[in-house]
Design brief:
Layout (H helix, E strand, L loop, with lengths): L8 H8 L6 H9 L3 H16 L2 E5 L1 E4 L28 H7 L6 E4 L9 H14 L4 E4 L2 H11 L3 H11 L3 E2 L9 H6 L8 H13 L3 E8 L5 H18 L2 E8 L14 H14 L5 E2 L3 H4 L1 H7 L6 E4 L6 H4 L10 H10 L3 E5 L5 E4 L2
Parallel strand pairs: 1-9, 1-10, 2-3, 3-4, 5-6, 6-7, 7-8
Antiparallel strand pairs: 10-11
Helix pairs in contact: 2-10, 3-11, 4-5, 5-7, 6-9, 9-10, 13-15
The structure holds iron/sulfur cluster.
Length: 359
């Protein structure tokens, strides 16, 4: 492989030899203007794992409430109690949202000031009882940490009880970007810090609960902060081993306007590629179509991504923050994103058991 930038050559040697990349390598990849060179390396790393397979799941989001005690500067989703647009779903509402075809529900919401931990426990029990065939992926590490802050329920107890209620895996949200500078600047010091976020994922992994991880990028973070975030996740995966998928989340500008415009597709493609290359111990890296758009998602399948998430019926968090994509797509649209890239759609469940390969 030839590169426009000679700094990439020793990195390519390491990638071919399956050697771990360093912090300096990560920075060199982000700083390189050879987007296609970085992408081809990531595609090599992805293809070595998964060939041409690209995963998706028939899923829906349930966001129990957007009422939240915090005011993260990048969040266009949260509302204060009584504010216009604030909502709270009942457990019956949420059970009724799960349709026949749904294979996975993804439950994430605001840090509600008054809902007790038992409300979440009952919510998961009720969905499990009504739809025992549906897998429940619920509650970020930030929400589990909030159960401790608000109700003094230790994460191990909270996760053990939620698992007994029917929780099978955890989403990767609430990580934002692991940087004390940004936590202060963007007003998210009130939620789990990087050590706590990783500690809670480690507890989940020890309990046999698989989890995902995210990174919010494309706002006022530096490239070094992105690399540090990825390396902290890699370190945690070495320690506890239960992460399944890494999902880079492009910041949506419309509601909170931390920067004048959304980060361009080239930056998202490079971020996906560098993630695939640095996170050598993560099974999957996702192109999240909700924040990328369908066209960029399709291209990202040549930049290291092997998953497009799913049909995502009723996605609210990114849409209330300004995402312009539809709030859910049909299976045929996912097929189009995957097949336009020349890849093979593989329908999965929440835990990556293959449901069907769609030739
Ligand atoms: S990002 Fe989460 S914790 Fe922060 S304000 Fe929004 S809903 Fe609340």
């Amino acid at each position: 492989m030839r590169f426009a930038n000679s700094r990439l050559e020793p990195i390519w040697d390491k990638v071919r030899a399956s050697e771990r990349l360093s912090r300096e390598d990560g920075l060199a990849l982000f700083e390189s203007d050879d987007l296609l060179g970085v992408g081809r390396m990531a595609d090599h790393a992805k293809s070595r794992r998964e060939g041409d397979r690209v995963y998706f799941v028939i899923n829906r989001h349930i966001t129990p409430t957007n009422v939240c005690v915090l005011s993260c500067a990048f969040c266009g989703f949260a509302r204060k109690p009584g504010e216009a647009g604030a909502y709270e779903h009942t457990i019956e509402d949420m059970v009724a949202m799960v349709k026949d075809e749904t294979r996975e529900v993804h439950i994430v919401g605001g840090h509600h000031p008054d809902w007790p931990f038992e409300y979440y426990e009952r919510m998961i029990q009720a969905i499990r009882a009504a739809r025992p065939d549906v897998q429940i992926k619920a509650l970020t590490a930030a929400e589990v940490d909030y159960f401790w802050r608000r109700w003094k329920i230790e994460p191990k107890e909270a996760l053990s009880r939620l698992k007994a209620a029917g929780l099978q895996s955890m989403p990767g949200g609430g990580a934002e970007i692991f940087s004390p500078r940004l936590a202060k600047l963007l007003k998210y010091t009130g939620k789990a810090d990087p050590e706590r976020w990783c500690e809670i994922h480690g507890i989940a992994h020890a309990l046999g609960i698989k989890t995902n991880a995210t990174m919010l990028y494309g706002h006022v973070e530096t490239l070094a902060e992105r690399v540090d975030h990825l390396l902290r996740l890699r370190e945690q995966q070495d320690a506890s081993g239960g992460f399944v998928t890494f999902i880079p989340l492009a910041y949506q500008v419309a509601a909170t306007k931390l920067v004048p415009r959304q980060t361009p597709p080239a930056d998202s493609l490079k971020t996906i590629a560098v993630s695939r290359l640095l996170l050598d111990n993560f099974p999957h890296v996702e192109a999240y179509w909700v924040t990328l758009g369908e066209e960029t998602t399709s291209v990202a399948l040549h930049f290291g991504a092997d998953d497009v998430n799913g049909t995502l019926e009723d996605e609210r968090i990114q849409h209330l923050s300004g995402a312009q994509t539809p709030a859910g797509v049909a299976r045929e649209q996912l097929f189009r994103m995957i097949r336009d890239a020349g890849k093979i759609p593989v329908e999965r469940d929440a835990l990556y058991n293959v449901v069907k390969i769609w030739p």
